[in-house]
Specification:
With 156 residues, the chain is α/β, with parallel strands linked by helices. The protein is 17% helix and 31% strand. It is built from 3 helices and 6 strands; from the N terminus they run αβββαβββα. It has a 6-stranded mixed beta sheet, covered by helices on one side. A hairpin with a 5-residue loop joins strand 2 and strand 3. The longest helix is centred in the middle third of the chain and has 15 residues.
Length: 156
């Protein structure tokens, strides 16, 4: 989800709720402790230099049970961050701590924001020798045994 998309959704919502892909909800009393830009400059295993940039939201379970972040407050935080940090319309990455700090993509299911699990991947598969997935062929069992290849028939 891009920053422009969340900015369009927030005014239409009564509450801001985040849930993990497995259906578990982030506690209602979470705080957004950071909105910023994360820049990653790296070289992949194929030797290609890459640059990535995302908007980062950090969610924190504060044990502040009276706190509820409202959509207009989050929109204000985003707008302030855009002004102060010159944030562009980039993809959003969310940091949230379960057993350890996790990084998630952001989606919306019509009611709640969904923290989508991120996965790793090789960005240079053609350069580092990873074989492409072979096409799977389903072989049917022969119904007529007489049509089977016989030894030395040359058909197998």
């Amino acid at each position: 989800m891009k920053l422009s998309e969340i900015k369009q959704l927030l005014p239409t919502l009564q509450n801001v709720e985040f849930q993990l892909e497995n259906g578990t909800f982030v506690p209602e009393h979470f705080h957004v402790t950071e909105v910023g830009i994360i820049k990653k400059n790296f070289i992949d295993c194929g030797g290609v230099v890459r640059n990535e940039e995302v908007v980062n939201f950090q969610l924190w379970n504060a044990n502040d049970f009276e706190h509820r972040l409202k959509p207009n407050k989050l929109l204000h935080i985003i707008q302030l961050s855009e002004d102060k940090l010159n944030i562009k319309d980039l993809e959003i990455e969310v940091e949230y701590q379960n057993a350890t700090i996790g990084k998630y993509d952001l989606d919306f299911n019509g009611k709640n924001f969904v923290l989508k699990n991120k996965t790793t991947a090789c960005l240079a598969q053609d350069a580092c020798g990873i074989p492409s997935e072979k096409q799977k062929i389903i072989l049917r069992e022969s119904i007529d045994n007489s049509s089977c290849c016989t030894q030395n028939s040359g058909c197998c």
